[in-house]
């Protein structure tokens, strides 16, 4: 039954945002299931595309950087893993997770404009449904990578808890940005195009297709603190430590990522709530 028919709209408005979302958890679950069911509907390969897409990207980057430019990956510190493809995947999958959260979240209001106009509900759950959808896809991809690395002899199982915690923090940070982007995109239609350009710049500012040591060796001195403070740089470092090098991550990096997650989610949610009042009129 719609929220306004129960007289719950006023009650929800008085709640804090977290309580509002929790009270609407059944709707969040149903929206997430809808996204999962429609993602690859009527495609022949179905959820196999969730792994084929990143593998295609790996093949392209491996050919360009690993073959044409002869890029070399360092050997795993505590594992026998060595190879540019594995080195790339350990950072590319977290990046794709972050990018998917933001790209899907950015269009979540316009894609559900009818629902936003007609029904009173915590509209941020449209963003969180896309976050959960991206999380399921990321979990499938990272699980396959873990199995492959284990088969080639990497003793990485002890370090998976740290990776999981970092994955949650990365998801929270991405969720904060997605909340802000989803509301801002309703008012500024060009934001989707601008964000695509910014993501490209952000991708190459993050050591995904190159060794992180290049930042200290080649980047101008003024840019090094900025590049090192990049939250996606921290995430790539943590995931490579846990998966590729089979070692505990730098706990300071995990702590900084936690600060980014808390700050990003708080600021993003605040922006969303400030702009939420007129979303139904503008969408």
Large-scale geometry: globular
Approximate helicity band: over 70%
Report the count of strand segments. 0
Note the total helix count: 15
Mean pLDDT over the full residue set: 85
Describe it.
With 283 residues, the chain is mostly helical. The chain has one domain (3-282). Helix content is 73%, strand content 0%. The protein is built from 15 helices and no strands. Helix 3 packs across helix 8 (124-151), helix 5 packs antiparallel against helix 10 (191-205) and helix 5 packs across helix 13. The chain is globular. Residues 1-14 have low confidence and may be disordered.
Helix and strand arrangement:
Blueprint: H1 8-14, H2 17-23, H3 25-39, H4 49-68, H5 84-106, H6 108-111, H7 113-118, H8 124-151, H9 160-187, H10 191-205, H11 213-218, H12 224-229, H13 231-244, H14 251-275, H15 279-282
Helix pairs in contact: 3-8, 4-5, 5-8, 5-9, 5-10, 5-13, 8-9, 9-13, 9-14, 13-14
